[in-house]
Amino acid sequence: MSYKKYAVIGNPIAHSRSPEIHLAFAKSCGIDLNYEKIQCEIPDFEKTVKAFQKNGGNGLNITSPFKNRAFLLCDETTVRAQMARAVNAIKFEDDGSTFGDATDGVGLVNDLQNNHQYSIKNKRVLLIGAGGAASSVMGDILDEQPSEIVIANRTIEKALDLESIFEDLGNISVSSFENLDHAFDLIIHATSLSLQNQKPELPECIINQATFLLDMTYNCGVTPIMQWAQSLGASTVIDGEGMLIEQARAAFVFFHLSKS
Ligand code: NAP
Questions:
Q1: Is 200 a pocket residue for ligand 1 (Cβ < 6 Å)?
Q2: 26, exposed or middle or buried, with CB in 10 Å at 0-12, 13-18, 19+?
């Protein structure tokens, strides 16, 4: 029997749960596949992808810090990947071309809508962070028509860059952490600080009893920002596990069940 070959590539990669999630989806769909982890040195990304393809690989998931380089490497990409300027799933086509998709945003929205019955429409949204994960979810959040999105980031220039990419698509503004001055319905924490058991310094006024907070980090238990929001009475506080599974589900559909 010939198994299809998939892998997740990143640096670091040991923590990745993609193999177990994709193998579980494959089992439930009756699809035979191999799925491995590839630890890739920073300069070697493009040549490692090409070598995987040359050795019969069918597709790759891409994680930090390679999502932007994966976008640049693809021959074709989905519209949502073009919006995010990032790719987290690459399919190798029979003619040798590469087709990329970005599924973090749809993963976030599907987790909120399907697993928590939470609609973003008309909500005041605060996005904390302006790195790869934040830029990956902007387009899909805007599709849901929030009343506003405020992007707050330590490096303001990066938040302004993100605002300029998406400014025609909704009511977007930028703030420093300390200048945030009102409560939000939905707060999405997309900095990497939870991985270091830390949180950004934020004013308490951003939380009220209606606030729903999602920390994108997963596998870290209750993180400092989750604890902080809970202590201030936020209505719901979740981590990024559901988003992780939903983005993998969308990538699995892209790999196995959708036409290019
Ligand atoms: P990234 O591209 O490296 O961006 C890091 C972000 O964290 C930037 O906004 C950066 O701000 C901020 N940051 C880092 N150190 C900081 C500090 N000391 N103080 C304040 N801000 C700081 O990382 P990423 O790929 O966006 O990932 C961010 C998080 O999302 C990670 O925890 C990752 O695991 C998680 N994630 C989860 C999923 C999921 O499916 N659940 C998917 C993707 C990512 P500056 O711009 O100022 O440097």
A1: yes
A2: buried
